[in-house]
Design a protein that fits this description.
Elements (H helix, E strand, L loop, with lengths): L6 H14 L11 H4 L5 E4 L6 E4 L1 H18 L1
Antiparallel strand pairs: 1-2
């Protein structure tokens, strides 16, 4: 069977989608100052070139507070 003549275009389109996927549902900011929010980490995205917030620290703190409240009830 012959090689798909659109293989290179298909590969390029797939790679572009993979790079855009992490940014699709995130708020993007032009500067780090705009992205800053207390309790969240900011980072410069290598895919879109803008700044995003990471809620991982806020989620961790929330989980720790919940765990502490549960221990008090016991």
């Amino acid at each position: 069977m012959g090689k798909n003549k659109y293989h290179e275009q298909q590969k390029a389109a797939q790679d572009a989608r993979k790079k855009k996927k992490p940014c699709r549902n995130k708020a993007a900011y032009k500067t780090e100052e705009e992205a800053y929010q207390e309790g969240q980490r900011t980072y410069h995205c290598p895919h879109c070139g803008k700044w995003h917030r990471s809620g991982s620290l806020a989620t961790l703190m929330s989980d720790l507070k919940k765990k502490k409240k549960r221990k008090r009830k016991l």
